[in-house]
Design goal:
138 residues, alpha+beta, 5 helices, 22% strand
């Protein structure tokens, strides 16, 4: 069974494929640029398409919520959590084993320390990751 976040992302992508396929394609093209289309970066592009608002309007998850007012509780909670998330492309500046890592937002240059013990075992300095960072109160 998938988490509410994964199933909600899938629901948003399925809906967007029917309701606004151009928006979905445009977001994927922005994210991937001229990169090779692999399964791994396609998943990151899909997450970007769902969470990142375009310059001229709401994010896909916001459009989905507005079009589907009677969503199950788990999906409403996932959508509410995404509203407080900061999605971006991050470079790992420093890894502190069993503590966390220092990230730099590639677009804004802002840095942030993320406390995440498990990830320090496989993330290395200078790697780039797409992710959503949720505030600790979510």
């Amino acid at each position: 069974m998938s988490s509410p976040f994964v199933s909600t992302r899938s629901a948003v992508l399925t809906w967007a494929g029917r309701a606004c396929p151009d928006h979905l394609r445009e977001a994927a093209d922005i994210f991937l640029g001229k990169s090779e289309r692999t399964r791994e970066n396609a998943l990151s592009a899909a997450t970007f398409a769902v969470l990142a608002p375009p310059a001229d309007g709401p994010a896909l998850y916001e459009l989905y919520a507005a079009a589907n007012p009677q969503l199950p509780r788990a999906q409403r909670e996932a959508l509410a959590a995404w509203a407080g998330a900061r999605f971006g492309l991050y470079e790992v500046l420093e890894v502190k084993p069993d503590r966390g890592f220092q990230l730099r937002d590639v677009l804004t240059e802002a840095t942030q320390f993320v406390q995440e013990r498990k990830a320090t075992k496989h993330i290395t300095r200078s790697e780039e990751h797409t992710s959503e960072l949720q505030s600790p109160c979510n």
